Amino acid sequence: MNKTTNEIHITVLSQAPFKDFGDIIGRGIPEVNESKDTIDNIEDYMGLGAYKGDGKDLQFTPDRNASARIKFTTEINLETKQVIDVYCESPDGTTNLTSGEYGEANPLKHSTLNPSNNTLGFDYTGANPIPPVAPSIDVKGNLQFTNEANGNLHIQGKLHGDGFPATSTFIHFTEANENGVMLGSSAITAGTDKDTGVIELFGEAGVEIMHINLSIGFDDNHIPISVTNLETNQTYSVEEWNDIHKEKPMITPEALTHIETCIQNVDNHVTTPSTEECLNDVGEIISQIELVGIVFDKNGVVASDENTTSNESIKENQGTKEETNTQDYNISPTIDTYLTNMKEQMANVDDNSSGRTLYDDFGDMD
């Protein structure tokens, strides 16, 4: 007779399946000593720019030691109806590939087990710790566990997130890393790429990223041996089920071309929905910049002397836009000029005489 499942370990990983990511302006990784212009400073202070990812060959696997931006783990006991432990960390830290600066996020986490129906509610949120302000990775979920009469464990529920980065969820029944079972995996939202995907982080877990409805079977030693997808009534061995997720791409094909298409359309004076989406993406970043009152001087360097808001003040007063000295340059009018140039190019689709490109407009911002 099969044992009743009591000890459950749930792990959720937020993973960036890239060598580097966050370089939304598309300028690549500059030399450490290269002088920075306004665009580079925007990237640095908005948590954008080139940051080390978790590796371009990453796969969805039930490996607790896999590289991740954020790792969430909670242990519950269905017999005592308690959450035994919960922790959340940035196991591999964050590295700015431009400056070499390293930091570790300190995510907030929460885990609660409803004893009346064995439903686990959890959430976590964590942001890039290097810049003064950066959008957070947010994930929240509800999973219900039911011990079935035949000894199987029924797991049903949903996870919500930002759509970026990729997310995987899996389960173990002991402290060991062996015999893990994938519960779900979520690729990066189509329409984003490794650099523009960080824009998806604004907001709080508004995208349904997983729907889980599985029954896990065990052998006499309570080692998981089968998984039945109750949505399709198909049964797999644990190895087969995990391989389905392992072979699943973490990035959809659509997510690879969004920013390239946007730049190409602007350069060719073509108005398309993709171009409009790109303008909206840039506008979202601008609204976040305005909230913290980041100010640059005429050389594109963040002003931090007595004439304006210091970097420490920005950290302490996030959400408040400070008044600035008239000798300095607030970033908003500069970006507004850039957006105006883009819109004018799109409005004049038949005028190709100027030969200007999107990168020419970037240069105007310096």
List keywords for this structure.
single chain, 366 residues, alpha+beta, seven-stranded antiparallel β-sheet, 21% helix, disordered C terminus
The share of residues in extended strands comes to 25-35%
Strand order of the largest sheet: 8-9-10-11-14-15-16
Count helical runs. Answer: 7
* Overall spatial form: globular
The SSE order reads EEHEEEEEEEEEEEEEEHHHEHEHH
Structural class computed from helices and strand pairing:
alpha+beta
Question: What is the rounded Rg?
Answer: 24 Å
- Kindly, what is the distance between the CA atoms of the first and last residues, rounded to a whole number of angstroms? 73 Å
Overall number of domains: 2
Task: Offer a concise description of the structure.
With 366 residues, this protein is an alpha+beta fold. It contains seven helices and 18 strands.
Describe the structure.
- This protein has 366 residues and is α+β, with helices and mostly antiparallel strands.
- Helix 3 crosses helix 4.
- The strands form five sheets. Strands 8-9-10-11-14-15-16 form a seven-stranded antiparallel sheet. Strands 5-4-1-12-13 form a five-stranded antiparallel sheet.
- It has two domains: 245 residues, no CATH class; 108 residues, no CATH class.
- The C terminus is likely disordered.
- It is built from seven helices and 18 strands.
